Amino acid sequence: MERISINPITRLEGHGNIEIFLDEAGNVSRAYLQIPELRGFEKFAQGRPAEEMPRITPRICGVCPTAHHMASVKCLDALFQVQPPPAARKIRELFYNMFMFEDHLLHFYYLGGPDFIVGPKAPKAERNILGVIGKVGLEIARDLISTRKAVRELMTEIGGKVIHPVFGLPGGISKPLSPEIIARLKEVGKKALDFARFTLKAFHEIVLSNPQYLELITSPAYFLKTNYMGLVDEKNRVSFYDGEVRIVDVDGKEMGRFSGLDYLEYIAEHVEPWTYIKFPYLRKLGWKGFVDGEETSIYRVAPLARLNAADGMKTPLAQEEYERFFETLGGKPVHHTLAYHWARVIEALQAAERMVELSSDEEISSPDVRNLSLKTPREGVGIVEAPRGTLIHHYKTDERGIIQEANLIVATVANAASMNMNIDRVAKATIKEGRVDEDILNLVEMAFRAYDPCFACATHSLPGGFPIKIKIFTRRGKKIKELSNL
Amino acid sequence: MADKPWVAFYWCASCGGCEEAVVDIAEKILDVVEAVNIGFWPVALDFKREDVESRPDGFFVASFVNGAVRTSEQEEMVKLLRKKSRLIFAFGSCSHLGGIPGLANLYSREEIFDYVYRKSPSTENPGETLPAENSRENGNELHLPEFYDRVYSLDQVIPVDYYIPGCAPPPDIVMNALEALLEGKLPDKGAVLSPNKALCSTCPLNETKPEKLLIRELKRPHEFQADPEKCFLTQGLLCMGPATRTGCGERCIRAGMPCRGCFGPLDNALDQGLSMLSALASILDFTPQEKEELERVLGACPDPAGTLYRFSLPSSILKGKRRL
């Protein structure tokens, strides 16, 4: 039997590794995405004071530390049974939308975008951020860099550090906003909104007006029929910072909603011996293996899943585009993995619109940013939508607030089973009777990029290419073929 | 191309924040790319292990390694990089001191596996499956690297020449280190590349600290509203400033939160936690007769290991939980 290895490919929690096995006829029997690392945060959280968790858990991921910080802080609100004052709640949400905006757009321009903006068939040397600049113009690239920088500088001043923020406490935040910061927030909000609108326009002109791209987005290799999960507000609109988690089935019908501790009724995690990552699935349906379609108990998260799980967007411009999205792609739910990219741009637009709304909200200037009437802690759950999907922190403590048990359902982990299936599908479509189609490189890349797996490269690759080398060996270890995208 | 020196970047048990820190030097990264050839950087460039193996020894002028060491794969890679590099820079707290993932040393490998794969409330594992170094699934043989019993800082695995501190290192600290390398202005080997002074000496709140600081109360951050303009220790809030090296720009303090020590100890300190204990001993104002009262006050620091050694447990004297 032949084995094909792609290594290293991803960063979920550490590195990643793809192994593809061929049968006697040279067809793919099974492809595996392995995660060869574990750090054990859930265990070593035990014994730590709960109030320190927002300063510990961001180290799960330095690409989306704000998501862990916020899930952790919200978990502390629940644990100490305290509501933050309106100003603190709004400042947290504003901060969170700034993070969502910069993270989504960066992914779009640096990593996912090159495939589409420059083109999936463009020479590889051009499919990177430099190619994007060539296509959209230097002026836009400058805007991108300066908008991102302005957002991240403000996040540093408000949150302490942009990589691993520190400002959240149960019942609020550490410090009110100064008038100077608020003035800058307003300015940056406008800039962000302009940039998000421009990005959407560019996406339409370059991607959606090109029938070949649309055909690619809707091609069978990227079709995966799963359940979907995402936070929604009281009107069932996409929400990043809080709300209820809604689950829809493969036909888009609501099959459950939950908040807080009830997550355990809906989510369970499966263990495989060949990877350190666990595979979440819908508990009520039971673990059915790596299958999609009517039978599946696997759910997907992140932009596409959130749009599928909601009835609409929270803000007007994003809502317009939400309607266009489902009209164009044939109604809800959309099962096309590559549609994650479009959904991500729509979400970036909502994040920017929320930045404008919240930065001009009078209430954020209030000095009242802490509610100190905490109650004796016992157990709490905090849920946010990380850029890469629903993120759940669950802590149990003693009466002094010392963690007895911590459970974390991390966003990218929720998509791990789907990524495995997508890779398997792409491998099966591109490797036939021992013949390996050279396109496998790009196709695997694109399956991966769509999910924006939480790895530093996903948002910050230099020069933007997604590095893959595939080597094919015979059973005796003789190399028969080598493919590389460089 | 041929004349430019080669450098390598690698990550071990880390979160990706250090990769972000490299890119956060923003437009200056272009100057760096201009000055060096990057010969290995798995996150961004497609060079594989064999591309490093095939280089002569000492080929890289410098390798920057972030993350602590926890698996056999990480150990093999850093040993290879040591051989191929003239200088090794430990990049960020995890590599420098063990970092937050180093708190896992308070538990054994078995305890971690048992909780993560068996006991956690969402795990459904009736067959008691555990990830294994070698497994067979439908006849397909799969391998995983060995998960060691403890976390190591980089210099516990290979000799390290320089340390770039911080979680994550701020852009100016990263840029200064790169410039010192490129301009040949590095200090003596073994140096931590940030000023050898306590954080208190550069803290914007230092002037609010009385000449002789004495406190009779310790508080936890969630219990009260600290005044963000006043030295946190004087308010009874544990701040690692006295035992921590400066250079971070006091970003946490400016955001209204006390220091947790990510820049690590000063040069003369044996152990960051001990330094802090000694600082606390001199500011807690109790007489020997007030032992009970002191114990009550210390109850507001319920997790000394995870607080005083938040970033430095693997590199401390204790290294982790001792099993006697």
Task: Give a quick account of the main beta sheet of chain B: strands, pairing sense, barrel closure.
Answer: 5 strands, parallel
Outline of chain B: globular
Number of strands of chain B: 9
Mind telling me which CATH architecture of the largest domain in chain B this is? Answer: 3-Layer(aba) Sandwich
Beta percentage of chain B is 5-15%
How much is the average pLDDT of chain B?
Answer: 92
CATH architectural label of the largest domain in chain A: Orthogonal Bundle
| First and last CA, distance of chain A | 28 Å
- How confident is the prediction overall: mean pLDDT of chain A? 87
Uncertain spans of chain A: 8-14, 455-469
CATH topology of the largest domain in chain B: Rossmann fold
> Strand order across the biggest sheet of chain A?
3-2-1-17-18
Largest interface, C-beta within 8 A: A-B, 101 and 79 residues
Rounded to an integer in angstroms, the radius of gyration calculated over CA atoms of chain B is 22 Å
What value does the Rg of chain A take, in angstroms? 22 Å
**How large is the count of helical segments of chain A?**
16
- Whole-number total of structural domains of chain B: 3
Q: What's the level 1 CATH class of the largest domain in chain B?
A: Alpha Beta
Distance between the termini of chain B: 56 Å
Q: Specify the CATH homologous superfamily of the largest domain in chain B.
A: NADH:ubiquinone oxidoreductase-like, 20kDa subunit
Descriptive report:
The complex is a heterodimer of chains A (486) and B (324). The longest helix of chain A has 32 residues, at 86-117. In chain A, 42% of the residues lie in helices and 18% in strands. In chain A, 63% of the residues are buried. The radius of gyration of chain A is 22 Å and the shape is globular. Chain A folds into three domains: 3-37 and 416-484, no CATH class; 83-218 and 336-372, Cytochrome-c3 Hydrogenase, chain B (Orthogonal Bundle); 224-335, no CATH class. With 486 residues, chain A is an alpha+beta fold. Chain A has helices spanning 41-44, 53-56, 65-79, 86-117, 129-136, 138-159, 179-208, 211-217, 263-266, 303-309, 316-328, 340-359, 411-414, 416-430, 440-451, 456-460, and strands at 3-6, 17-22, 28-34, 168-169, 172-173, 227-232, 244-248, 254-258, 267-270, 279-282, 299-300, 379-386, 389-397, 403-409, 431-432, 435-436, 469-473, 479-484. Chain A is built from 16 helices and 18 strands. Chain A has a five-stranded antiparallel beta sheet with strand order 3-2-1-17-18, covered by helices on one side. Chain B is an alpha/beta fold and 324 residues long. Chain B folds into three domains: 6-100 and 150-182, NADH:ubiquinone oxidoreductase-like, 20kDa subunit (Rossmann fold); 111-148, no CATH class; 199-308, no CATH class. Chain B contains eleven helices and nine strands. A five-stranded parallel beta sheet of chain B has the order 2-1-3-5-9, sandwiched between helices. In chain B, strands 4-8 form a two-stranded antiparallel ribbon. Chain B has a two-stranded antiparallel sheet with strand order 6-7. Chain B starts with 5 loop residues before the first strand and ends in a 16-residue tail after the last helix. At the A-B interface, strand 3, helix 1, helix 6, strand 9 and strand 14 of A face helix 1, helix 6, helix 8 and helix 11 of B.
